[in-house]
Structures are given as C-alpha cells and as structure tokens.
Amino acid sequence: MRGFFRHLVDNLGSMILALLLAFAVWIAATLQSDPFVGEVFANIPVALLNQPEGTVLFEPISEQVNVEVRAPDSVLRDLTPADFETTLDLGGVESGTPIAVTVQVTCTNEAVRIQAVVPSQQTIHLEPVDTITLSVALDVEGEVAIGHLATQPRITPAEVTIHGAVPYLNEVVSVTGSLSIQGAKEDITEQVVVTPRDAEGRL
Asked: From the CB of residue 35, how many other CB atoms can be counted at a distance below 10 Å?
C-alpha cells in the first residue's frame, strides 16, 4: 500500500497535466462546435431607477442604448432585446447639478458577456418641480361691426395653475391668450388657448 501511495505521489504532476490537457481538449472541441460570436443589440430601452421624489428631468436623455455582447452561437441565436435589463440609477443625483451616470446592463443568460454599451453614460440634470397660479390675460384683436359695442370680456376660469420645473416657473410672469372680435355682431363664446410667457413676452 505504501508503495502505491509513493507511486501516486511520484506521478501526481503527470496526472494533473493529463487532466489539464484533457480539459483543454474538451474546451477546444466545445468552442469549435459552438464558438463564441459577437452581436450588437440596438435600441434597448433604458429604465430610470430611484429618481428623487418631486424632481423632473430638466434636459432630455437617450431613452435607448446599443449593447454589444459575446456569447456561444447557440445562446446568441435565442437572445432577444427582452433578455436585457438596462437601467440608470438616479438615487444619488442631486437637483440642480448635471452629473454623469453610468448605464447598467444585465442579461438573464449568464453565458452572455457584455462587451460595450453605447452610450455608456448619460448626463442627468434633475430639477425640483412646483406649482404656481396666475391670472389669465386676454388680448382682444380687431373691431366689432359698425353699430355694435365691445364690452370687457369675461374669462372663465380667471386663473390657471402651472406645474413644472422650478427654473422654468421662475421665468413665467404672465399667462395670455388672444381673441378676435373682428366684424362681430353678437356675443362671442370661444375656447382660447393660453400660454405662459416671460417678462419679454416670449413663450
């Protein structure tokens, strides 16, 4: 028995080498029959996670990304965009300061290797949202028909509520609409589109 163990120890290196060679041959055979190949999956939708309550994206971002992967050919043939989860974690983003956030991509199949994501980062700019209430101003255009009199218009509702990003709300000083009474011979009741405007009258 002692001689057997001595023989085993003496040949342990050779046995390990043989096992490694056998494993290498098996790997080579597997790769030959089912090689690793690459592919790009385009337009994978990006989900936003942990966006702070009461904030809004102040600048647009890319809502989709392209994902480059490598996987065995047999796996890649059955892979679809639905197998990827692409997210942007906004949990650490503070309002008012643009910051680059890395796009995170995972795949439901562990045999898939993510090679690249384009774009790999997104610049996130969050701003707080708020609500303001302003009176509606109406610009009356034109003249009524001869022999008729234009009275002060009644506006219903007299006020409107505006909800949006605080930097935009801070610029709004008026809400206006326009109504044409040109040639009118009777009362006019009309729905008027109103728009928020800044101090210089810009939309």
From this structure: 10
- The three-state (H, E, C) secondary structure of the chain, written as one string: CHHHHHHHHHCHHHHHHHHHHHHHHHHHHHHHHCCEEEEEEEEEECEEECCCCCEEECCCCCCEEEEEEEEEHHHHHHCCHHHEEEEEECCCCCCCCCEEEECEEEECCCCCEEEEEECCEEEECEEEEEEEEEEEEEEEECCCCCCCCCCCCCCCCCEEEEEEEHHHHCCCCEEEEEEECCCCCCCCCCCCCCEEECCCCCC
Six-digit token string for 155? 């506006």
pTM of the model: 0.69
Distance between CA 203 and CA 194 in Å, rounded? Answer: 10
What confidence tens digit (pLDDT) does each residue in 36-48 have?
Answer: 899 999 999 999 9
N residues, the chain: 203
Radius of gyration of the chain (CA): 34
